[in-house]
Amino acid sequence: MQLEFSPAEIAFQKEVRTFIAENYPQNLRSVQDEGHDLSKEDFLSWHRILAKKGWIAPAWPVEYGGIGWTATERFIWSEELAAADCVGTMPFGLSMVGPVIYTFGTPEQKAKFLPGILSGDDWWCQGYSEPGAGSDLASLRTKAVRDGDHYVVNGQKTWTTMAQHADWGFFLVRTDPDAKAQEGISFLLINMKSPGVTVRPIITLGGEHEVNEVWLEDVRVPVENRVYEENKGWTCAKFLLAHERTGIAAVARSKRGVEKIKAIARTEQDGDRPLIANPFFKRKISELEIDLTALEFTELRSLAGEAAGKGPGPESSLLKIKGSEIQQRITELALEAVGHYGAPYFRGFGEGDNEHPIGPDYAHRAAPTYFNTRKTTIYGGSNEIQRNIIAKLVLGI
Amino acid sequence: MQLEFSPAEIAFQKEVRTFIAENYPQNLRSVQDEGHDLSKEDFLSWHRILAKKGWIAPAWPVEYGGIGWTATERFIWSEELAAADCVGTMPFGLSMVGPVIYTFGTPEQKAKFLPGILSGDDWWCQGYSEPGAGSDLASLRTKAVRDGDHYVVNGQKTWTTMAQHADWGFFLVRTDPDAKAQEGISFLLINMKSPGVTVRPIITLGGEHEVNEVWLEDVRVPVENRVYEENKGWTCAKFLLAHERTGIAAVARSKRGVEKIKAIARTEQDGDRPLIANPFFKRKISELEIDLTALEFTELRSLAGEAAGKGPGPESSLLKIKGSEIQQRITELALEAVGHYGAPYFRGFGEGDNEHPIGPDYAHRAAPTYFNTRKTTIYGGSNEIQRNIIAKLVLGI
Amino acid sequence: MDFSYTETQDMIRETLSRFLADTYDFDSRSKMIASGTGRDPAIWKALAQDLGMLGASFSEEHGGLGGGYLENALIMEELGKVIAIEPYLQTVVLGGGALKAVGGAVADAVIPEIINGNVIIAFAYAEPQGRYNLANIRTTAKKDGAGYVLNGHKGVVYAAPWATHLLVTARTGGATTDVNGVSLFLIDANARGIVRRDYPTVDGFQASEIYFENVAIPADALLGDEGAGLPLIERIVDEATVAVCAESCGVTAKLHQGTLEYARQRNQFGQPISRFQVLQHRMVDMFMEVEQSKSMTTMATLKLDLPAAERMAAVSACKAKVSRSAKFVGQSAIQTHGGIGITQELAIGHFFKRATMIENQFGSADHHYERFERLTLAD
Amino acid sequence: MDFSYTETQDMIRETLSRFLADTYDFDSRSKMIASGTGRDPAIWKALAQDLGMLGASFSEEHGGLGGGYLENALIMEELGKVIAIEPYLQTVVLGGGALKAVGGAVADAVIPEIINGNVIIAFAYAEPQGRYNLANIRTTAKKDGAGYVLNGHKGVVYAAPWATHLLVTARTGGATTDVNGVSLFLIDANARGIVRRDYPTVDGFQASEIYFENVAIPADALLGDEGAGLPLIERIVDEATVAVCAESCGVTAKLHQGTLEYARQRNQFGQPISRFQVLQHRMVDMFMEVEQSKSMTTMATLKLDLPAAERMAAVSACKAKVSRSAKFVGQSAIQTHGGIGITQELAIGHFFKRATMIENQFGSADHHYERFERLTLAD
């Protein structure tokens, strides 16, 4: 065992650090610094730079456009991205449907869809949740009925993140209405511009428009857009959920979040001292930091296991649970730190609104972010579900 | 609403305070201060003084030997007892079987058993739990088979506190083997000196002998020692459990416990300051103290409800849960406070052993008490069971 | 000792509860907030004139019902149950509390106008650098002839856009955090030189940044003695803190109740989620937090008239506990609701937002634990 | 970066695990503790001579296997899984650690004797007034001719009744809590003037109060430089702290596993209690705590060779987390077992006792959070 990076890894770290410094879009940086909501174009500008460099899909196999980095190099890469405060790439194509397609798809599907995911030309969204089926994914009711070489799809999806921008969506639909729960489900790729697809915004507590309802009314989907066998979509869904859970630990990003809390706590005054000198606020930071270290080394141990041939197993639920709790604690501390200035509700920066927000620059997103981040223990399988998974699959009870 | 005591209540407070000061046995005080285990005679010495004064059963109706004190007077009484560090009276007669007998018993049973409970001549124990039935009390298997004017009892009870001293025990036994769960159970009073009764000690983690196994082999119990109807013993059991839960909050005693922690924390050094000046240790004390205030006022509100005619209901489970958690936290703080001197294992003070314990006087009982107090969230219906009760009976879920 | 309410108190609660059930359902509230002024003035008028509610805590000489802290607490609890955005806390508890404490001509003049709903008061005390220290004040009131001239910046002044009067803390002497030199003024909200920047708050109220630019105020705007206002300010803030705790009891009771109702009708894995033991126990824990908040609020309400040190310790014990309960109950409610809990469309999310703001209003849990410790846990 | 064990390390773990499975079941352990000396010396001899285990972390020049911190950690973890009462921590980790650090003739002389099981060392560092501050020392070592004279009282010295040598911290200068003036000595445990009061500990070891009454010790008992011993002491205590964390991983893994097994076979309300969701989630939380303890222990083990400030921060982060995990896992195990968990007759209660003692060994969670903050969170 050793913790140190090898000389080659140190060189790699220098390389990616330099690349980011030289290539990260300047205007994207200012949009972030001022706390604006990011547009589709904001996300894509960075995506396209990475795609051009060939660094857009580090986790993919080389044959499909991956880079062949080692686990350590991927670790360094995500650390550097987070340290430089880069926006994330949208996970729906790169981390979710892409791996499903290259793992379960036909050669034609790979040829048709993977390039658009890598280039960013296709924006993807995920059609999983339904109003009646939250954590109980398998109870979904959206139906796809075979009609010649098409499926006719009817139903409603919800919590569809960024569907307002999407070109394509991957959907779980019921193709056998008589089968039970997880059987009789298929995995369909649906063009979001198809007739019958309607996207309606859901506004969340912080005032954001991130998620949507998606209505599907007699949407015709070519059979060739079904991935894997009919009625076997649950296999893709399970595979994808395990992939989603590892990314969800978000260690590097949370480290950066802790740094931001420290900066706020060094600025905010608490009596005659900066807030960070308040022993109880300091303790909350140190607890957070230590718990984050525990999560980081748990992820590293898990990655080492993967490298040794053990795929991401049900223990990845641990990463989801602890990762999401830590993300929430970071937002709690931010809101606590800003004191009175957590209260003003500011959603300016719209067209024609150039007024400066109320209070210090770091304050006006504290409450909305806190509210919004409650989702992390709910989505991707709620933390209760994750605990059920560990109980059943790891502990065998 | 008002918090202040009335002039009459203040006079009462003064009266009981004086009585305790003048009558509490001096030798009992030294046994306590030195951390000895208390003998049967230690407990009884104070019991007899209270019995003589007529103050042994404040909660009982006057006709059976109670005093007619108001809820506030009873509150004052328990505060004063705790403040003066008096040993408690054993609850098995006074708080448990006594109320069952005067509520459900025949005139003959009242005449036969109540005087011995009040005088202390009869030491009682409780035969409820069985090895296979912990929190699931109703699954008990001890059998009583009718044989003329006797029951013949066979079975095993466990966790029987202080059974080593007991003259009498009240037992739940199954009188109808075909009835389900809570039906078919009867409530029997068994003379512990009867042939076939065997008491075997269970030594707990701190090294104490408090609890026992009780074996019943062909024990003959006169039918007239059955309280209430045959197969209706569960009615008595439920009544008794509700009574047990209110006492279990132990507010006054925990207040005294917090005071002792403060005294230790003022003595123990932590670097250049007393431990109580350590902000984190201080915070644990203040959290404890505030939670105890919340419990106290919840109990007072509940008592006010009782006074207004609402009997102790399922919300008394709240008092059990919070009261037991607080008792445990007090022992945790004590153990944390004594530092290195929590480790020495000392069960001296036996016959012929007069060696002084290791470390400061308050240290040598810290670990055993901590271990022993884990029981408070387990016995009297575990805290998980209490939460189930609230869910079902208060919240209706 | 006695823990029962009087008949009048029971009646106040019932009357208000019925009125709010009729007027303050979630849709109506959302419409008020979306309207031009961000509230419905008719509600305030009705509270004053139809229900006599604004007089509940004032003496009969001033035209009130002769109540006090207990009445404020039970009214705030009812307002919390509908997350009302009425300026009762600012106008009656803080403004009225200050006026009752100083008495005299100004009280005789203004209290009746509070009671009949003509006066709305906002409390301008917080400053950007001050956090929860009430003596940390840079706003100055300089003697100028018979009156004073105000200069400074007050932040996050709830209800200021609606206010007829501002209750302002300012320095008539001393350095920024000195205990002495603090004074309290009640001034006309529209006085010349007051610049407001108004905005909504995350919990549905309206608030302002207020800049005093050489605002001339008359001598009789001073409440109490010049430079010796801090004890008075501490007292009314303690009263307001307990009132907010009472509101929190209402808010969290509804969070708990709404969660119970949702869990009973939401099906997952073939049964109502209220059947899952983990959720059951969480809802039990929510119940226990609500009950303990009520107990602490009762305790602190009954101790508001004790000497300052005892009052402060009781209020801080109460707020420390209630802040934590508000956080736990709010977060648990959202988690149990799942995604639907964090949308704007359901009431539950808005109760959560108010509960979250209550956590830190008049001081966070940590702030109050520390004050409690300073007062009761000497080394 | 690399997180894999070598083949030798895998072999050490397997060999030890098999040996302990054969020799250290709960009944055997109870019998050792109840025996005259409170242990079975044959076990120690076997560990040394049959298994070569005591040499795992020593260099090949000294007759060891050439390992280090990782070997100590995995041996301590295995010992934790049977709550072994062997003096490995005191003898190998602390004594051996100090000897490796200072090297020279004393190391060459004593390390081989540790490896072959002839030497048992106890670490006499704690004093009644000192709590977890390693510099808080009143015991004095006064220069006397070529040697020193020891006077003072050391408390709760684990393994002292069994020891051939004592590793003693003492002041050769400075006032009670000075950083300078601290020295470390390795002395004969039977030297004249050493008075011991022996007793069992709650976690099954033997320990002593040790009184030094004018104990004459030779010059070569001094390890390192006179008066400059604190950094060395801090280092070996850090190494021991991580070793105790590794032990805790073994102890808590067994607490978790024992709880799972019990819950599967214990029936209540007509089903195994492992079917109750609240208990399931608690056992999941226990699992997560154990896993995170392992992660932190790995992290800290790999950082033991970093410069002092980084090493200390890593060790404190580890111990703070592991202390809390030990408490949570231990308490949860007992609560899930119910009454049977707090009797002497089941192993689970004894694992709980050891976990409880680990919480505060070499510093409580609070102590280590504070040290971590001092080192990493400057204002």
From TrEMBL, chains A, B:
Belongs to the acyl-CoA dehydrogenase family. It comes from the Bacteria. Residues 125-218 form the Acyl-CoA oxidase/dehydrogenase middle domain. InterPro entries: Acyl-CoA_Oxase/DH_mid-dom, Acyl-CoA_Oxase/DH_mid-dom_sf, AcylCo_DH-like_C, AcylCo_DH/oxidase_C, AcylCoA_DH/ox_N, AcylCoA_DH/ox_N_sf, AcylCoA_DH/oxidase_NM_dom_sf, Mycobact_Acyl-CoA_DH. Keywords: FAD, Flavoprotein, Oxidoreductase. It comes from Sphingorhabdus wooponensis. GO terms for molecular function: flavin adenine dinucleotide binding; oxidoreductase activity, acting on the CH-CH group of donors. Residues 8-121 form the Acyl-CoA dehydrogenase/oxidase N-terminal domain. This is Pimeloyl-CoA dehydrogenase large subunit. One of its GO terms (cellular component) is plasma membrane. Residues 231-393 form the Acyl-CoA dehydrogenase/oxidase C-terminal domain. Its cofactor is FAD.
TrEMBL record, chains C, D:
Pfam families: Acyl-CoA_dh_1, Acyl-CoA_dh_M, Acyl-CoA_dh_N. One of its GO terms (molecular function) is flavin adenine dinucleotide binding. Its cofactor is FAD. Keywords: FAD, Flavoprotein, Oxidoreductase. SUPFAM superfamilies: Acyl-CoA dehydrogenase C-terminal domain-like (SSF47203), Acyl-CoA dehydrogenase NM domain-like (SSF56645). Residues 227-365 form the Acyl-CoA dehydrogenase/oxidase C-terminal domain. Residues 6-84 form the Acyl-CoA dehydrogenase/oxidase N-terminal domain. Residues 122-215 form the Acyl-CoA oxidase/dehydrogenase middle domain. It comes from the Bacteria. InterPro entries: Acyl-CoA_Oxase/DH_mid-dom, Acyl-CoA_Oxase/DH_mid-dom_sf, AcylCo_DH-like_C, AcylCo_DH/oxidase_C, AcylCoA_DH/ox_N, AcylCoA_DH/ox_N_sf, AcylCoA_DH/oxidase_NM_dom_sf. Coiled coil: none annotated. Belongs to the acyl-CoA dehydrogenase family. This is Pimeloyl-CoA dehydrogenase small subunit. The lineage of its organism: Bacteria, Pseudomonadati, Pseudomonadota, Alphaproteobacteria, Sphingomonadales.
